[in-house]
Every structure is written in structure tokens, then in C-alpha cells.
């Protein structure tokens, strides 16, 4: 036994990506709810490399330990398995509140839970922020605009949401989340920042989340039919995940307290998007139209005047570059899942 213990003491420590050294005055303790998810894990990487202490709270509904495994055991990193619908008592300086399923099939899987996460979960986060006087950034969404009647969408637009449709659990959940944030700001003097995030893609997004980016890339990589829902004339604007993360960090650091759109204003129809992916992946896939989604927003494009003016932020990564990185991630993931099936 003694020998085994001695060998543990002399074993080489794990290698991590290099993190900056910050003295205690500049180093913050930052909580990221939903930090094991797609966007959250990229935010973790950025804040860790900057030298902060990062605490991730996640219930692993759609998140995965694998997204943050490269930080497990690092002295600045902590991963807590916790459902944000239940109260949480920790000491932190800042909170990025991302916990919520995000893709339509995920948030429609258990609509009641989606509502609880975005209402009770947000109350807990704001209650925690109030107690420890932390600044909070809420990850809201372009879905607060619903199927918009104004194009592109500025933050002053109040939205066009069906309160009882299949998307309502998410849309209305996020709208309440925003309302709660401003109520806590006014009544309890909590410092809140609200990011209205538009469609985001990149490595670590879920392979099977049913969203357009993952569906089209997987279909093209597997030489399957690329499924366009409806006539393909509906539009979206896609932002690469590192641009979003830069925007969220800039918003947290700013003094601007009104909601801010974070998205890429380059818009395309879903039909065009299918063509772009087919061409980038190559292969024989054919593009076919199938049944339209209920309440599918017909046009979506962010007006990012506010983000430009108050955060000096705008997206940098062109669609093709971002898609190439995402395609290569998906290719690796497919090879990995094939290896699992073989073994
Ligand atoms: P994701 O599903 O990858 O991440 C969400 C994370 O929250 C997951 O790790 C999940 O396990 C966790 N979670 C869910 N419910 C929880 C609960 N009750 N308690 C604790 N953890 C919980 O999704 P994402 O794309 O990374 O989205 C992150 C945030 O950004 C979400 O709030 C989402 O609404 C918002 N957003 C994302 C997009 C996008 O295009 N990706 C667009 C608009 C808004
Ligand atoms: N809360 C929490 N962590 C804290 C402080 C509060 O999870 O550190 C929860 C608390 O359990 C409550 C919610 O946040 O359910 C709202 O807190 P607040 O103080 O606003 O309300 P109250 O406790 O007065 O109901
Ligand atoms: N879509 C599609 N084929 C798919 C998946 C999605 O045509 O396989 C369409 C969907 O109808 C919507 C757009 O692509 O118009 C974006 O869908 P997604 O679920 O990615 O995100 P949303 O912006 O609707 O939340």
C-alpha cells in the first residue's frame, strides 16, 4: 500500500491548456449555469483561459461532462451536478445563467420542466445574485420576438408570440425570465444584463438536437436526403459560437442594462442554407422539402445596432469558416460513434 501511495505522489500531473495568472483583485469567481452545454462550455474555456475561477452548475439534461472534461481537476474549475429549479447556495461574483434546453425538440420534450427551469430556475439565480450581490447575465433568445412582424428585429420590438403554441414553454419561459430580471433589478437592485441570442452553431452542438445546422450537416455527411421543412423560404441568420461568447463577455463587462441582441445579421433562406451545406460537405445528398413546422418563425435577423454602439461588438467569423469547423467536428464525432459501435 505504501508503495502505491508513493507512486501516486510521484505521478505526473495532468496537462491543461495554459491559463493566465490573475491576482486576487482581478480574478473573479464566476458561476455558469448550463455550463456543460454547447454555448456554456465555450464560455467556460474563454473565462478559464483568462484566469478566472469557474463553477459550472448543470443537471446534464442536454449537457455533457465531455464538453468540459479538459478542465476536470484544474484548481480553478468546479463542476456541480445540480438542477437549478432547486435553490443553490454558493459564493460568487458573477453569474452567466444559461441553464435551459435550447433546441425545439429538447424544450418540447418536457414543456412543464422547460417552464420551471426558466421561471423557478431564474428566480433562484436572481435570489442568489441578490444575496451575494453578484452581477447576472441572462441568456435570453430571439424567440422572445416569436414569429416577428418587424424585420430585422430591434430590441424595442415587443414580439409576436403564440402563448399556447408548441414553442410557448420556451418563448414565454424566456420572456418571464427577462421580466424577472428587470423586477429584481428594480426592486432588489440586482445588476442584470440580458442577451437576446440568435441562432448559434459550432463544435459541441448536439448531433441529434434536430436543429437545422446539425440535421443538414449529418444528413450531408451520411449521404442522406437533406430535409427542408416547408418551402424553404423561411430565413435565419447564423452566428458562430466564439462570436457569441465574445459578445456575452462584453455585455457582462459593460454598463448597459437594457436587452442586447447578439447574432449575426447575415441572413439566408433555409433553402439556400441547405445548398451551402451540401456544397461544403460534398457528396450525393439530394435536398427535399417536407412538412412545415407549426408556428415556425418565417423571418429572423438581428438588428445589432445596440451591440455595435454599446459593446463595440460585431460578429467576425464568416459562415463558411464556422461551418467548416463545425463539419469537421461532426465528422470526428461520427467516426467516434462508429468506433464505439464496433467495440
Ligand atoms: P444546451 O442544451 O447545449 O445547453 C443548456 C445546458 O443547460 C445543458 O448543459 C443542460 O444540461 C443545462 N440545463 C438544462 N436544464 C437545466 C436545469 N434545470 N438545471 C441545470 N442545468 C440545466 O443549449 P445551448 O445551445 O448551449 O444554449 C445555452 C443557452 O443559450 C440556453 O439558455 C438557450 O436558451 C440560450 N440560447 C441558445 C441559442 C442557440 O442557438 N444555441 C439561441 C438562443 C438562446
Ligand atoms: N436562493 C438561492 N440561493 C441563494 C439565495 C436565494 O437559491 O443564495 C433562492 C431562494 O431559495 C428563493 C429564491 O432564490 O427561492 C428567491 O430568493 P429571494 O431572496 O428573492 O426570495 P425569498 O427567499 O424572499 O422568497
Ligand atoms: N429546419 C429545416 N430542416 C431541418 C431542421 C430545421 O428546414 O431538418 C428549419 C426549421 O423549420 C426552421 C429553421 O430550419 O425554419 C431553423 O430551425 P432550428 O430548429 O434550427 O431553429 P429555430 O430557429 O427554429 O429555433
Morphology call: globular
Mean pLDDT: 96
Rg, please? 21 Å
**Helix-strand string:** HEHEEEHHEHEEHEEEHEEHEHH
What is the share of helical residues? 25-40%
Report the uncertain regions: none
- Number of helical segments with 4 or more residues: 10
Counting helices, strands and paired strands, the structural category is alpha/beta
Strand order of the largest sheet: 3-2-1-4-5-6-11
Number of E-type strands = 13
Bound ligands, each once: nicotinamide-adenine-dinucleotide, uridine-5'-diphosphate
Task: Note the gap between the termini.
Answer: 34 Å
Give a quick account of the main beta sheet: strands, pairing sense, barrel closure: 7 strands, parallel
Strand content: 15-25%
Please describe what this structure looks like.
This protein has 343 residues and is α/β, with parallel strands linked by helices. 40% of the residues lie in helices and 16% in strands. It contains ten helices and 13 strands. The protein has helices at residues 2-10, 38-49, 104-109, 111-132, 168-188, 212-221, 241-253, 270-281, 305-311, 319-342, and strands at 29-33, 53-58, 77-81, 94-97, 135-141, 192-197, 200-201, 226-229, 235-237, 239-240, 260-262, 267-269, 287-290. The chain has a seven-stranded parallel beta sheet, with helices on both faces. It has a two-stranded parallel ribbon with strand order 7-10. Strand 1 (29-33), helix 2 and strand 2 form a beta-alpha-beta unit. Helix 2 (38-49) crosses helix 7, helix 4 packs parallel to helix 5 and helix 6 packs parallel to helix 8 (270-281). The radius of gyration is 21 Å and the shape is globular. It starts with a helix and ends with a helix. Residues 87-89, 123-124, 127-128, 130-131 line the site of one uridine-5'-diphosphate.
